[in-house]
Amino acid sequence: MEKPIKFSPAKKRSVLLLNLNNEECHWEAQFSAFNWHCIHATSVAQTIKHIHKYDIDVAIALISAPYQHIVFKALTRLREVKSSILWIAISSDNQFTQYPQTHQFPSYFIDYHHQPLDWPKLSHTLGHAHGMAALQLEKAAELNNPQNNHVILGKSATIRRFKTSLEKIARAEGAVLISGETGTGKGLSAHLIHAKSSRKNGPFITINCGALPASLIHSELFGHERGAFTGAEKLYIGHIEKANKGTLFLDEIGDLSLESQVNLLQFIEDHTIERLGGSQTITIDCRIIFASHVNLEAAIDEGRFREDLYHRLNILRIHVPSLREYREDIELLANAYLRIYQQGNNKLILSPAALEIMLRYEWPGNVRELKNRIQRAVVMAEGKQIYPTDLGIKIVNYQSQRDLVQHRLEIDTEVLLDAIKRNNHNISAAARDLNISRTTFYRLIKKCKIKL
Length: 452
Hints:
Elements: E1 13-18, H1 28-33, E2 36-41, H2 44-54, E3 58-63, H3 68-81, E4 86-91, H4 105-108, E5 111-113, H5 119-143, H6 157-171, E6 176-179, H7 186-195, E7 204-208, H8 214-222, H9 239-242, E8 247-251, H10 258-270, E9 272-273, E10 282-283, E11 287-292, H11 296-301, H12 307-313, E12 316-319, H13 330-341, E13 349-350, H14 352-360, H15 366-380, E14 385-386, H16 388-391, H17 398-422, H18 427-433, H19 438-447
Parallel strand pairs: 1-2, 1-3, 3-4, 4-5, 6-11, 6-12, 7-8, 8-11, 13-14
Antiparallel strand pairs: 9-10
Helix pairs in contact: 2-3, 6-7, 10-12, 13-15, 17-18, 17-19, 18-19
């Protein structure tokens, strides 16, 4: 006779019960019957301790008309402690519709229950919330994994400020302009703005305006109907239309042709498009993020970028700092990428000489260059340590370079001031005197910090 199979009882899941009403509620046995471990808290301080001790993801708040303000104030405070907790409301007086703050319920709770409690229904709600919390945790872990290229690494004050600005912009709805040098992470920043926005469940569509021929930009952005031009054998949905209910990321916007700029301006103003060769007006709901490594203000002066478009897209602006601005994070970044490219072996370490030269290097390619040099070093290294030669960075006298730059700047300043003085502060005449354009003259004035 076969022995009966014994099943181990499932581990009880924890749920916190916040009871600021100080009501009599001995529900531990009922929770236990449905395989829940109930943790009772009667104050905010006690709740915070339980959150940290038991790693709470799902919680219940008892609420009644006299205590609703206290409960909402407590939940606001507890959100600061752990914002990912999913809250369920239980009414003590069954007067939800009469609460003055009923409109706030969707902002604080994922569901609510009346008394007497329907325990199977409450257990189902808790199970659903627990599953949602697990998905949130998985999503957060994925987002914070350096290997997926969707996280900004760094602990410096510069990076902390940048992340704070990024969070604020993500919560807004306006157009975003991301500026920064090549390799700083403008595309990553755009991804994170989308991932942290209310449109995170919608599509994220990217188009590099500098990678497509000018003749194809309009079709790629707005799409085309079948037969719109030679070779258009079928309907093509453009990137703007694909981004409906989501985010459209236009990288290197400064390379967009003037003709395409006009069409894009029209879309930004009325949120409608017409496919090439079509006559139907299509309304699109998407947020646009722009990025450019070129100086758009200078491009306007040179007639390469429309000023009216610039003002339309320059609503929320954020500048991605260069790696030189947060050198204190270089070691952290280097070790993070070293772990990635070693595929978890963790055999190689950075030598003191390698770290020293990395801290002194100017990093013209920014974080992208750092990643590439670490990847190169993992291949080239022969021992257990990485040396400057493995990184491909030559030891040079950077101080001499800086001195040379400063010397050149002083010469330029003197030349510019003399030209301005000779021409009685007439900038156009001073520019002609030096045989340079007026735009270049203004750029040099800004570079040399000359006040007119």
